């Protein structure tokens, strides 16, 4: 991840599973809001707050290890259909 335009803010993290990585992202956000609100005992946020935190980063990427290829690959949501944009004028 890279939270700002400054390349020195680029950080790499390693997790044992995708679920642990997602928990890690939530933890990053929780630490940020605790730093902003140190006197608040019970912090609450909703998914849109978390999405705004992620969207505010310059870059964030996730790679998942593929045992069969012995390589890290981008995580792909197989439930989303990928289609090519329609050509102009095509019906």
From TrEMBL:
Any Pfam family matching the protein: ER
InterPro entries reported for this sequence: EHR_sf, ERH
Source domain of life: Eukaryota
PANTHER family for this protein: ENHANCER OF RUDIMENTARY ERH (PTHR12373), ENHANCER OF RUDIMENTARY HOMOLOG (PTHR12373:SF10)
Protein family (similarity comment): Belongs to the E(R) family.
Protein known as: Enhancer of rudimentary homolog
Organism in which the protein naturally occurs: Urochloa decumbens
Lineage of source species: Eukaryota, Viridiplantae, Streptophyta, Embryophyta, Tracheophyta
